[in-house]
Amino acid sequence: MDTTSRLLMLLEVVEQGSFAKAAEIRNIDRSVISKQISRLEDELSVRLLNRTTRSFSLTAAGAEMIKKAAELRELLGETVRMAENYHLEPRGVLKITSSTLIGRRYLQPVLNDFQKRFPQVEIELRLDDRLVDIVSEGFDLAFRVGEPKDSSLIARKIARNRLLIVAAPEFIETYGMPKTMEELASLPAASYANNSFRVESIDYYNNKGEPCDQKIKSVFRANDAESLLMKTLSGTTYFVAPAFIIGDEIKEGKLVPLLTDIKLMEYSAMYAVYPHRDLPVRTRLFFDAVREYLGKDKPIWENGIPNFEQMY
Fold first, then answer.
1. What is the SS3 assignment for 26?
2. CATH 3.40.190.10 boundaries in the chain
3. Range(s) for CATH 1.10.10.10 in the chain?
4. Angle between helices 3-16 and 60-84 in degrees, nearest 10
5. Residues 177, 183, 186, 191: is their CA dihedral positive or negative?
6. How far apart are CA 19 and CA 68, in angstroms?
7. 198 φ, ψ to 5°?
8. Rg of the chain's alpha carbons, rounded to an integer?
9. Superfamily for 92-157+269-304?
10. Closest CA to 149 of 11, 273, 287
11. Could you give the CA distance from residue 98 to residue 130 in angstroms, rounded to a whole number?
């Protein structure tokens, strides 16, 4: 391993916050990384890290080296992308990350067709509901619901994602069909919740077009959309659902939209996120294929919701 490779390894350790996490991403033993960082310090004749048994901190020299390592990674990335764009046929490894539901339901069909068209492209798909650092973990594309907060990333909206309120016929038989938001609020709901975000109310516009929010009675919370959908299908809760998680449940009569005359605020759209404007050919072609599959005007997931244009 040369000095450049060791500098990039040091950068990964700092970005991940530990030797163990950097080793996990590289799929190597932690001791290998520790030895390589020590060799880097020997080569440069300067201490880069102050280490303890459980943590580390950068020395002044280490902080300077990290800046140079980040510049080096950017330069190497630009060089590789430039070279790749001279290929007439896309090739190489395409690393993609998304939430589990988006990946399985909307990316997998595109991936299958893409590799039939371009067999020299290898694809690495990471399905993870946590927010990954696409730069430090080396991803070419990420598909997310909601615009990223990191302004250094490029984000392009690829599909809208409206909300609807759904319940199973069994739920309506038990509780009746709610006629107002106040009636709905008294009924048991399923809602999304994780460590940093939870849905506790419904945002909508009243008859005067004024923004309002109605607290809900959440009796079941989960950080997985499909679990919330399964709970709703059981007939024990209603669910304020993003349209992209609905399949054919409404067409098949398993779910019924509630309060369709209420104007709900639009949910976060789906975005494609990438670290550089200068996309390699394979990345650009895959991005275009996903956008084409999802639908440029009407998202594919709205096809499973009859008369959705007249609702909410």
1. helix
2. 92-157+269-304, 163-267
3. 3-72
4. 110
5. positive
6. 20
7. -145, 145
8. 24
9. Periplasmic binding protein-like II (3.40.190.10)
10. 273
11. 9
DSSP at 304: G
Beta bridge partners of 297: none
CATH architecture type of domain 3-72: Orthogonal Bundle (1.10)
Structure-token pair, residue 52: 């303890």
- 19: helix, strand or coil: helix
What is the C-alpha separation between 230 and 251, in angstroms, rounded?
16
What is the distance between the alpha carbons of residues 244 and 130, in angstroms, rounded to a whole number? Answer: 18
163-267 placed in CATH 1.10.10.10: no
Would you give the end-to-end CA distance of the chain in angstroms? Answer: 59
Going residue by residue through the chain (312 aa), what tens digit of pLDDT does each one get?
A: 889 999 999 999 999 888 888 888 888 998 899 899 999 999 999 999 988 777 889 999 999 999 989 988 888 887 877 776 666 678 889 999 999 999 999 999 999 999 999 999 999 999 987 778 888 888 999 998 887 777 788 999 999 999 999 999 999 999 999 999 999 999 999 999 988 788 999 999 998 889 999 999 999 999 988 999 999 999 999 999 999 999 999 999 999 999 999 999 988 899 999 987 778 889 989 999 999 999 988 999 999 899 999 999
How many angstroms separate the CA atoms of 67 and 247, rounded?
47
Whole-angstrom distance, CA of residue 225 vs CA of residue 230: 9
pTM over the 0.90 mark: no
Residue 138 gets the label, from left (phi > 0), alpha (psi -120 to 50) or beta, of left
